[in-house]
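Example record

One chain of 377 residues, shown exactly as stored in the release files.
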Amino acid sequence: MHQVKTKSRIRMLGLGVVAVVAMVAATTSSCLPETKTATCFNPQTQTEFRCPSGWTCTKEQDACTDDDCGNGHLDPGEVCDDGNDIEGDGCSAHCQSIEICGNHIIDKAKGEQCDGGSNCSSNCKFLTCGNSIVDPGEDCDSGKETSGCTANCTFSICGDGYMNMVAGEQCDTGPSRMNTLNCNGPLCTIPICGDKFQNDAAGEECDNGSADTKFCNGSTGLSSCMFPLCGDGHVNMLFTPDGAAKTEECDNLGGADTATCNGNNNGRNGPGSCRLPSCGDGYINANTGETCDPLGGNDTAMCNGVNAGPASCHAATCGDRYTNMAAGETCDRGPADTVTCNGNTAPASCKVSMCGDGHTNAVAGEVCDPGAGDSDT
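Predicted structure tokens for this chain:
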């Protein structure tokens, strides 16, 4: 490292610093050689001042100097001389440095911390992460954290165990890149239902984005990012429960029936599961008063269909005032006999009244009915 000699300067700061000479003298010479002392003219303040004996003016006439540095001439021992004593302008105040990194002179005005040596980088900064120079042992050095380089001067990679927020990382579980409750390992993002990444550690069974699909509940409501089930409390209108004929219209958490929604048939599902109750949907919902429900709504031998009025989706019963021909009825006027129809007393109940049917229908005028054959009584 070069040793730099010190030097003295007297700068014109005001009229009180040195004696002011008449302005007329400035017209003859800016530095008067005929005197024993030099007189300098400050162009900024338009004033003259006299230097001490043996001192000279700098080239720019704004200061006195006790050596040749600053006179604007390259004298022996100088590497530069720009006529002033200002640091950082390409020539140091002592005329010994052109103020470039690598000249083995620490030019502080240029921001140098060092210039040469084992602990000094090529930009004259101490070897340290953050000096914008890739020093030994560093992968990179951007001077600050960037998307490609961490503040530790290593390449930024999801899985390096360092959360680089500039790179968009929200977490980093390290080389294993394992999912955790609070981090999507391979993505270095915080788990959110709807991010299209299924994080089992965060309790997700699936994640196809924010919207429902027939295989996965979306990000809204109960059971988000779970496989859809009738009874999960989330109405997924794209999902068809097992055995159901159509997609969900409603979904009661737990799967219980209500007057406004069919449940999941105690986990067995089937036709009509998680649908609005309707006679003929094949789902017996007791909360709506149903005792049976034939899929499609047609009469069966055991159940009245959708056309039975108040008796719809009730067990076919003689006397319910609905003629269920699938149950063998030919009429049904209620439990009592009428002129044209037997009541609900056997035999021949809910059949058109006729002599020989084995039922004595007094309303029809019968006093006896032995059935198909005659009788002595």
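Notes: Residues 249 and 275 are 5 Å apart (CA to CA).
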